[in-house]
């Protein structure tokens, strides 16, 4: 069952890649690099949450990262 979900996630990301890649101008290397990085991170998070559903989500990671700063200013 997880293999089919993995395949679906990968196909959706590949479809998004194929549709959006043509819309990015070829001379804008930074935009293409940012697109690849954000798409790859999104795919990796989706796959990790598929295989390890008990890990905390990105919102908890951000809370843990910025909670010392919030406590410092309050």
Question: What would a concise description of this structure say?
Answer:
By secondary structure, the chain is an all-alpha fold.
Descriptive report:
The chain is mostly helical. Helices cover 80% and strands 0% of the residues. Helix 1 packs antiparallel against helix 2. The chain starts with a helix and ends with a helix. The model has no long low-confidence stretch (mean pLDDT 91).
Task: From the structure above, extract its key features.
74 residues; flat; mainly alpha; 80% helix
Secondary structure class reads: mainly alpha
Radius of gyration: 17 Å
Number of domains: 1
What is the terminal separation in angstroms? 47 Å
- Would you list the SSEs in sequence order as H and E? HHH
Tally of extended strands?
0
Tally of alpha and pi helices:
3
Q: Report the helical percentage.
A: over 70%
Uncertain runs with pLDDT below 50, 5 residues or more?
A: none
- Average per-residue pLDDT, rounded, comes to 91
**Into which percentage range does the β-strand content fall?**
under 5%
What global shape is seen?
flat
* Main pleated-sheet profile: none
Keywords: Membrane, Transmembrane, Transmembrane helix
Q: What is the element layout, followed by pairings?
A:
Blueprint: H1 2-21, H2 29-51, H3 58-73
Keywords: Membrane, Transmembrane, Transmembrane helix
Transmembrane segments: 5-21, 33-52
């Amino acid at each position: 069952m997880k293999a089919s979900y993995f395949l679906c996630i990968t196909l959706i990301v590949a479809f998004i890649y194929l549709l959006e890649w043509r819309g990015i101008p070829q001379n804008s290397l930074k935009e293409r690099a940012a697109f690849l990085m954000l798409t790859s991170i999104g795919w990796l998070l989706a796959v990790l949450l598929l295989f390890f559903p008990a890990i905390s989500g990105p919102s908890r990671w951000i809370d843990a990262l910025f909670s010392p700063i919030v406590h410092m200013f309050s």
